[in-house]
Design brief:
Elements lengths: L7 E2 L2 E9 L4 E6 L5 E6 L3 H6 L6 E4 L3 E5 L3 E3 H8 L4 H20 L2 E2 L8 E4 L6 E4 L6 E2 L6 H16 L19 H11 L6 H8 L23 H16 L1 H6 L7 E5 L6 H12 L2 E5 L11 H15 L3 E5 L2 H4 L9 H14 L7 E7 L17 E4 L5 H12 L10 H6 L6 H18 L5 H9 L7 H24 L4
Parallel strand pairs: 12-15, 12-16, 13-14, 14-15
Antiparallel strand pairs: 1-2, 2-3, 3-4, 4-6, 5-6, 7-9, 8-11, 9-10
Length: 493
């Protein structure tokens, strides 16, 4: 702490240390005019150049910048307390942030550190508003493109709308939210997939001056990011991607894409991950749906959402619908006493019938396929049932390699050793081992070493017991034998 309460920084009297970083410190100070200000000491030349573009800027000193003191709270604190923002606040905050960014970008700079932690909500005025802080990481735009900021704004919008940061998945709009409508959802998705060219374009979209259609672009490495699962990748490539790439040629042979695939097996083995990477590989519209996305407080409300979801997917085909925890969405009807729930299963049955002809492919994942209504799993609805097992030795070595790929690590990491000593571990267990070693390396500010990985491995046991694995193997054998019996019954007329 460079200054104590009562010290002066030029004409500003120090009242309180607000924030301390590795190079900078921000103080609440009082000026000669009696007003409160935020004075940031230790700023670099770029922040001095960028700060005057902000409405909160007051003046620059020798090694400091003075900003208007914002009487309020960080957006991160607000979201921890309220979880989400209203639609009105979300739009107002985002537009004000984008206007600030527009001025920064016009000066040739990128903020490069936009997050809910670097946004302040001003509560002093009658109507709260959002202000950017944290300019210490700002860079020139020729070094860090402005698309970095626009993507970050999309992430912040997602957080304000849903109370959680985004993943690589493109969310479906399913209605019933007090934060987003379909137009705003499309804007969030477009920002996350780097399809906006400027802050001004995003403002025009939010204010309704330009139409934003559902995005069909998904970023990522596709199947290259998936360790193992070679049979699944080949089947998806040959039976879905290749057919979609040459639909006219496939029609000559009377071939359509299959309707759907069920991935089942132990949790933590990458079922949802392979679906996401399949969408990246194909480059098609991808919608991720979990059970809560289709929930409704109204009778038959969920049924209507299911119908609207498939209608939207057909409208923007080719579309991949990924249903997580599918057993919760289509449970066995003989265990259901609620007619509304039975109606939801019936709606799925109707929508799944030959949806592949409309360019809609369903990937569903579950740990408990035995809890799914059998009618859902028949050919013509779910055409393939694929068991996703625990990763074998080769796959485990590849998982370690991919998990270490973009992390600072020493060159002598022996992934084969790690794979040989993790039999029975889930893919998520292996990732957790790497992350634990990464945290140890971060604390010491060194590269991840083999010894750190061995230490992390020694402290983590497999998530599943041998009995758990045996239970999933029994489920696999049951469903494979059922499938063989169905195929035998189909022989003849």
């Amino acid at each position: 702490m460079r200054y104590q309460k009562g010290d002066y920084i030029d004409s500003y009297k120090v009242l309180l240390l607000l924030k301390s970083g590795s190079r900078t410190e921000t103080y609440r100070v009082r000026g000669e005019d009696g007003l409160l200000y935020a004075l940031k000491v230790g700023v670099n030349d770029i922040e001095k150049a960028v700060a005057p573009s902000l409405e909160t800027y007051i003046e620059t000193g020798n090694d400091y910048v003075v900003y208007r003191y914002i009487s309020g709270e960080g957006l991160d604190s607000k979201l921890k307390r309220e979880l989400k923002c209203s639609a009105a606040d979300l739009k107002r905050y985002t537009i004000n942030l984008l206007r600030q960014l527009s001025k920064i970008h016009k000066r040739g700079y990128t903020h490069a550190a936009i997050s809910v932690e670097n946004i302040m909500i001003d509560l002093a005025c009658g109507q709260s508003d959002a202000w950017l802080i944290g300019l210490s990481s700002a860079t020139k735009s020729d070094q860090t493109p402005i698309s970095t900021d626009l993507h970050a704004i999309g992430s912040v919008m997602h957080y304000m709308a849903f109370g959680e940061p985004p993943t690589n998945r493109i969310r479906a709009y399913n209605g019933g939210s007090n934060s987003v409508d379909s137009h705003l959802q499309n804007i969030i998705n477009k920002a996350l997939t780097l399809e906006f060219a400027s802050a001004e374009e995003m403002i025009d979209a939010i204010e309704g001056r330009i139409e934003v259609k559902p995005t069909s672009r998904v970023l990522g490495d596709g199947f290259a990011a998936v360790a193992g699962m070679e049979d699944i990748k080949i089947r998806l490539q040959e039976d879905v991607i290749d057919i979609l790439a040459d639909r006219e040629g496939a029609k000559q042979y009377g071939i359509d894409i299959p309707n759907g695939m069920l991935l089942y097996g132990p949790p933590g083995c990458g079922k949802t991950f392979i679906a996401e990477k399949f969408a990246e590989q194909a480059g098609y519209n991808y919608i991720y749906i979990k059970a809560s996305d289709l929930a409704s407080i109204y009778i038959h409300g969920s049924q209507e959402k299911i119908g609207a979801l498939f209608d939207n997917a057909r409208k923007h085909a080719p579309t991949i619908l990924c249903f997580d925890e599918f057993d919760a969405l289509v449970p066995r009807r003989d265990n259901i006493n609620n007619s509304s729930h039975s109606g939801e299963v019936n709606e799925f049955l109707s929508q799944l019938n030959n949806c592949g002809k409309d360019g809609v492919f369903v990937i569903a994942s579950t740990n408990r396929p035995d809890m799914i209504d059998p009618a859902i799993l028949r050919t013509g609805r779910i055409d393939y049932m694929v068991y996703v097992p625990l990763p074998d030795t080769k796959a485990r070595a590849e998982i370690f390699r991919l998990a270490l790929k973009n992390k600072p690590s020493e060159s002598n990491i022996d992934c084969k050793y790690l794979a040989d000593n993790t039999e029975g571990y889930l893919a998520s267990d292996l990732t957790a081992i790497v992350n634990e070693a990464a945290r140890a390396a971060f604390r010491q500010k060194v590269k991840i070493s083999m010894s750190m990985l061995k230490t992390a491995l020694s402290s983590r046991k497999p998530s599943l017991t041998k009995d758990d694995v045996a239970q999933y193997d029994n489920i696999r054998q049951k469903f494979e034998s059922q499938k063989q019996e169905e195929e035998r019954r189909k022989i003849g007329f």
